[in-house]
Every structure is written in C-alpha cells, then in structure tokens.
Amino acid sequence: MTQSLEAFERAGSFQLAGEAEGEALVFSHPLSFWGGVEAETGEIIDHSHPGLGRNVAGRILVMPSGRGSSSSSSVLAEAIRRGTAPAGILLERPDPILAVGAIVAEFLYGISMPLVVCDIAGIVSGDRVVIGVGDNGGAVVRRA
To answer: Which residues are known to be catalytic?
Structure first.
C-alpha cells in the first residue's frame, strides 16, 4: 500500500459527527455490512466484493455509498460495539442505513464513529486520513 503524494484537505458533511484517524481502505464498489462484513472480526466476507478477505477494523473506509440491506445498520452497530468497525467512513453519497447503525451505536454504547459525505477522489488505500471537526462544525478530511 503506497501513499499518494498529492496533499488534500476537503470539507464534508457529517451524517454522524466525530473525529477519527486511520489508514484508508478505498473501494470503488459499495459494501454491504449485512453478509459483507463479519462483525466479530471486521473481515470482508462478501465473495462478490473486490475487498474479500480485507479487514475494515480501525481503518477509514472510503467508498461511494453503502449497499443495504437495512440489516447493515445492526451489523455496523455490533461491529462498533466490538471494536471491529472502521474508525470512520467516508462516502460520496449519504447513506441512511449506515447512519442509523452509527447513531444507534453511539446512543446504546457511547461509542462514536464519524460518518462523512465528501469528495473521495484522490484518496487511495494506504493513505493516513484524519477526520476532524471544522470551525463551522462541519467535517474536515485531510491526509495526516
């Protein structure tokens, strides 16, 4: 995994506010947590996904959107509880199902995982990414 050399800092919108830092895991295909991610380990188990065998735990997951099903929210919430979820998720498009999972985990377990909608172009797997809160309360995404 090589880091891209181009610096970036961009604004985004929070679906769930928070701060996180981690290694980017970037996919051009959406990922479903229901049947796609093992909540006990964070491993991608969807045999049709290009990330099969990769692990999302502690990473900044970057993808265009989630891929349903509605049960993805419960799998994400459980992964957050277990500590096997991504440190944060960056999406090109809002995803209400992933937002529900992150919100439920924050409410039930007091564990926050930021979910941000922003321009993901130029972020590559291996980049060290920081999600922060800007002066206006919006998301700021930058390379560490």
So the answer is: 69
